[in-house]
Each structure stands twice: as structure tokens, then as C-alpha cells.
Specification:
Elements (H helix, E strand, L loop, with lengths): L2 H13 L6 H16 L8 H15 L1 H43 L5 H13 L6 H15 L3 H17 L6 H21 L4 H29 L2 H4 L15 H14 L3 H14 L4 H17 L19 H33 L1
Helix pairs in contact: 1-2, 1-3, 4-5, 5-14, 6-7, 6-8, 6-14, 7-8, 7-9, 7-14, 8-9, 8-11, 9-12, 9-13, 11-12
Length: about 350
């Protein structure tokens, strides 16, 4: 039997059946096959049964199939529209903050720093993370202002704000850490005289940002009203993984180091080793957060708190650069304030 001809005959025959019930159509089809092809229903091969099944399914589900295709087309159209609107929303936010920062504050002022913080909380940072880090570090080098400490302060803030945009999981921690370290390593390799300060400040900043984020995550779980907890938990996240935050951090550094120059690889290994003894706080706060989740949500051990997502797309390059520069200014203001406070205390003694 030529299966292609058999298939064509079966499809055409079945489509023309007028019976309302499928069993009547199948009975008629069986008679046709026996008469036309000389094969009884109990002698049909796998290939022949497959042809029959496909012909019946195609005919019987045609209307539903068309409905699904139409709905999918509508869904995709809505998604494209949502994408455009999201981009427009992100652009509108950026434009508004530019006006606010120009009209309500001056460079280096407390208001400038506060508006920068509010801006970070209002925009999608992950989408522009690498560009933002690159801009912030380059601005720091240009100003040559306490490179290590300024970089640490910048990266701490960026890490915390970006991580707090979405789920608290080791997967996002790994992605964010990688997106931050990659531009830092590139700049360090391009400016070897400041490589140590850049990488040391970046690694310390990521670690400090992780500690701050996980601490805030734990606090939110502890004090959140019961009625708000359920919608903020997802079953696809294993909260136990948070205990491995320090390991994820170290593994990401090692992975990027293996693809870097020998000098950078040695420098990253040296800094990581020096930081090893200071990882206790990250290990402790991670384990503590896991225990809080288990104590308060013993029925949701595979859950994680989800902040309302600000996953908006944007034309990111220029804005990322601006935010990076603003991150430097905010860090500089914070560090200058801390130094002034320390100096005042010394002068008063």
C-alpha cells in the first residue's frame, strides 16, 4: 500500500461524511477502507492507524484549531502592543526624572541623591545593568575620587536595587553578579594601574549589596501582614538555595576569572581569598532568611518573595550611562557626608 495515496483518500473520504456522531463516521470509514483498500480494521498497520488518527483529529478539531490560531494571533498582537506601551512608559519615567532632577536639585545635593534613589526604584535596572555599571566605573575613574570606596558604594546600591526588582533566588543572584562583574573586569583589564581598586571595590560592593538585599527580604517576610504573603510566594523557587548565596557568588567570580587574562585571574583569586574571611555575614544572613521563611511558611518551602515586577523595556544605552554617572554622584555625596561626620567628631574631641 502506498501510504501517501492512502492518506489522501482517507482525508477526503472522512471530510465528506455528514453524520453528526464520530462513531458513525468511523464505522463508515472502516467499511470504505475494507472495500477500497482490502484491509479490515483489525489488520491495520501502525502507519495506517496514524494516517486515520491524524485525518480524524484534523477534521473533528478544525474549528477549535482555527479558534486557537485566532486567539494566539490576538495574544501576540496584545504582547506587541504591551511591549510598545512598556517602552513608552519607561521613556516617560526617564523624561520626568530628568525634569525633576533639573528643576528640584543641584549637582551633589541631598535632593539630587534622593531623586537618584527614587529613580533607581522606579526603572527596570536589569535591562541596562552592564551599561550602567560601566558608566559608573568610568565616571569614577575620570573623577579619580576614592576609586575603591566609591566603586563599592555604587555597586552596593546597584546590586541591592536590581535584586529587589524581582524574585529572591540564586538564579537571579548569579545573573546579576555576572552582569556587574563583566564590565568591571573589562575596564580593569583596560586600565591595569587601577585594576586592583576597581575589582576590589566591585566585589566588595556586590557582597554588601547581597547582604543588604537578603536582610531586607528577611525583614519583609517577618513583618508582612498575612493577607499579603500568599500572592508574593512562587512554588518554582527553592528557598533552600539561598543558603548557597556565598557559593554562587564565589563560583561566578571563578567562572569569569577563567575567561579573563592571567593577570586579572590572579588578581580576582587574590581578592577573593582576602574576602573569604569576611563572607561570614553573607552566609549568616542567607541562612537566617531561609529559616525565617521555613518558620513562617512551613507549607511553602519551595517559595520566594516576589516584589511587584518592573520589567519594562527601554532604549537603554544613554539612560544607563546617565544613571551610572548619577550613581557616582550619589556615592560621592554619601562618602563625603560620612567623611565630614567623622572629621567633625575628631575635631570636637
Amino acid at each position: 500500500m502506498e501510504i501517501e495515496k492512502f492518506s489522501r483518500d482517507i482525508r477526503q473520504f472522512y471530510k465528506k461524511r455528514k453524520a453528526k456522531h464520530i462513531d458513525a463516521k468511523l464505522s463508515s470509514l472502516a467499511e470504505h477502507i475494507n472495500k477500497e483498500w482490502g484491509v479490515s480494521s483489525d489488520k491495520l498497520t501502525f502507519a495506517e492507524l496514524k494516517v486515520i488518527s491524524e485525518a480524524v483529529i484534523e477534521t473533528e478539531t478544525m474549528t477549535l484549531h482555527d479558534d486557537v490560531e485566532e486567539l494566539l494571533a490576538q495574544k501576540e498582537q496584545i504582547e506587541r502592543s504591551l511591549e510598545r506601551k512598556s517602552q513608552a512608559l519607561q521613556s516617560a519615567k526617564i523624561e520626568i526624572f530628568s525634569i525633576l532632577q533639573e528643576e528640584l536639585s543641584s549637582e551633589g545635593s541631598t535632593q539630587q541623591r534622593d531623586l537618584h534613589q527614587i529613580k533607581l526604584q522606579s526603572l527596570d535596572l536589569f535591562d541596562m545593568l552592564s551599561e550602567m555599571v560601566e558608566s559608573a566605573i568610568l565616571t569614577t575613574l575620570e573623577k579619580a575620587h576614592d576609586i575603591e570606596e566609591t566603586t563599592k558604594e555604587i555597586i552596593k546600591e546597584i546590586t541591592n536595587e536590581t535584586l529587589s526588582e524581582g524574585e529572591m533566588s540564586t538564579i537571579r543572584i548569579r545573573l546579576i553578579t555576572k552582569a556587574i562583574l563583566e564590565p568591571a573586569i573589562d575596564i580593569a583589564e583596560a586600565t591595569p594601574t587601577t585594576a586592583d581598586e576597581i575589582l576590589r571595590g566591585t566585589l566588595k560592593g556586590v557582597r554588601a549589596g547581597l547582604i543588604k538585599s537578603i536582610h531586607e527580604f528577611k525583614q519583609k517576610l517577618q513583618y508582612m501582614p498575612d493577607e499579603l504573603k500568599a500572592p508574593l510566594l512562587q512554588d518554582n523557587i527553592n528557598i533552600d538555595d539561598l543558603k548557597q548565596t556565598n557559593l554562587v557568588f564565589s563560583q561566578t567570580i571563578q567562572s569569569l576569572a577563567s575567561n579573563s587574562s592571567s593577570t586579572t585571574k590572579e588578581l580576582l583569586a587574590k581578592i577573593s581569598k582576602e574576602m573569604h574571611l569576611d563572607m561570614d555575614e553573607l552566609i549568616f544572613i542567607s541562612k537566617e532568611a531561609v529559616e525565617v521563611v521555613k518558620d513562617r511558611f512551613n507549607t511553602a518551602t519551595k517559595s520566594a518573595l516576589i516584589h511587584s515586577s518592573r520589567a519594562l523595556q527601554s532604549e537603554k544605552a544613554q539612560e544607563a550611562k546617565r544613571i551610572g554617572i548619577q550613581a557616582f554622584n550619589a556615592a560621592k555625596t554619601a562618602l563625603d557626608g560620612a567623611l565630614k561626620t567623622a572629621k567633625d567628631k575628631i575635631d570636637n574631641k
